[in-house]
Design goal:
89% helix, Four Helix Bundle (Hemerythrin (Met), subunit A)
Length: 273
Amino acid sequence: MGITFVALAGCNSEPAMVRQMQKERLISAIRQELLESAEEEKSAVLAMTDEESQAFAQESQRSAAEINRLRGELRPLIVADGRPLELEKLDAFDATWADLEKIDQRLLALAVANTNLKAARLSAQEGAAALDRFVTALVSLEGNTSDPETIRRFARASVGALRLQSLLYAHIPTADEAEMTRLEQRMSELTTEVDRSLESAAGQEPPAELAAAVQAWQDYQRVVADVVQLSRQNTDVISFDVSIHEKREAAKRCLAALAALLAAVESGPWPSR
């Protein structure tokens, strides 16, 4: 009779033992996906092209979806065992995961926008090309006159445009709103100086050559406006800041909560350690 009772008890306990092994396996899998997702998110933030950013962001989103699938398998097992400590730790992990998931969604949207990177490329390529045409046109105009004041006027325009470009480069990585405003004000002042130099030359210089300079300057100004608009969004700067501060702390809390859940599961009726 005693032997039969022991055998029956062993049979009844087997599903619980299996559940505990499954819970430990699922928690380990969630931890692995969390770590992979963090690496993929960092890669999305640091990627140098839209294609790379989007690819890494998609991988991070895939990991998040897998974590949610694993969580969907884990909860019924913990509920079936009904151990209060495990339920408490599971709820704590779910709360930290919800916070981390919200941060990731916002962070990845910023990372794939790449507005600072786009601003830098636009300034270095189209902006630099238009500026080069402008300065070349001014040099040509200077060569067609012997009037000292006219030469100084065009020289001031060249210097003003080149100084504006250097301020534009400084604007792109700037995180401080007040500093961006200060740079924009100074760029506006330089733009006015260049405009005045060109206006004062109207009717005094060869029309075709002056028109070429004016067109190049207008082209450059359009690029400047686009660069400032992109730079102001600051998605690369913000995503990097969120990644190394807010995301890092949230990930630590999430991993700590998951470790506490694993410890609760491992301390069950059939300790694995």
